Amino acid sequence: MADITSLTGAGPGFAAAPFERKNNELGQEDFLTLMTAQLQNQDPFAPMENGEFLAQMAQFSTVSGLDTVNETLGAISGQIGGNRIATASSLLGQQVLVPGSLARPDAAGVLHGVADLPEAASAVSVTYTDAETGTVLHRQEMGAQPAGLMGFEWRDAPPALVEARGAVRIAVQAEGAAPAAPFVYARVVGVQLPESGQDLTLDVEDYGLRSSLEITSIR
């Protein structure tokens, strides 16, 4: 293959076709100009092999393809950013399931939760107490329950509690079984968009910042 440095002065009557270099980078027109000059000024007794010519074309095609891929990925990244903002906006005001025992009535005045029972229990009860005074507000008898997740809700909370969205402490007791871990639905009051990464950070009422990857259920 002819030495590319010979293109600047090799061969009688050779004059390289002028080309404009933009931003110190060679584009498709520049590559074709150099390739044409190389073919015109190669040694007629040792012409460029077909394999060498095809290799140069393949290299350029690869670089050109990568530029196209980068442009496409940039466009996709912009679309993803817009979708993340839309997702963040849709989460505001929603209730998400988080591990904890402190809950507040939702817009309909209902308190929702889930208990994770590590083993079957002969009887399960859910007790709701005022988070400030410790006064027992309500108690539910759920009967015998198998191991796994058990949903519960309280729909007839006192109107004053509902109006004030007062905090309620929830306790789950399982007879003849290991303690059950409660999960409650809490309201999303803010969403943070990180500079990098795909997960959003949710500001959950009473529970602070939580990664969106921790959230398994939304109401």
What is the number of domains? 2
> What's the shape?
elongated
Q: What is the mean pLDDT?
A: 78
Number of strands: 10
Helical amount among residues, as a percent range? 25-40%
Number of helices: 3
Largest sheet: 6 strands, antiparallel
Give me the strand/helix succession.
HHEEEEEEHEEEE
Label the structural class: alpha+beta
Rg (C-alpha, Å): 34 Å
Distance between the termini: 68 Å
CATH topology of the largest domain: Immunoglobulin-like
The percentage of residues in β strands lies in 25-35%
Task: Summarize, please.
By secondary structure, the chain is an alpha+beta fold. The chain has helices at 28-40, 50-91, 159-164, and strands spanning 95-99, 102-103, 111-117, 121-130, 136-145, 148-154, 168-175, 181-192, 201-204, 208-211. Strands 1, 3, 6, 8, 9 and 10 form a 6-stranded antiparallel β-sheet that branches. Strands 2-7-4-5 form a 4-stranded antiparallel β-sheet, with no helix packed on it.
List the helices and strands and how they pair.
Elements: H1 28-40, H2 50-91, E1 95-99, E2 102-103, E3 111-117, E4 121-130, E5 136-145, E6 148-154, H3 159-164, E7 168-175, E8 181-192, E9 201-204, E10 208-211
Write a structural description.
The chain folds into 2 domains: 4-90, no CATH class; 94-214, Sandwich (Immunoglobulin-like), CATH 2.60.40.4070. 28% of the residues lie in helices and 32% in strands. It contains 3 helices and 10 strands. The protein has helices at residues 28-40, 50-91, 159-164; strands spanning 95-99, 102-103, 111-117, 121-130, 136-145, 148-154, 168-175, 181-192, 201-204, 208-211. The radius of gyration is 34 Å and the shape is elongated.
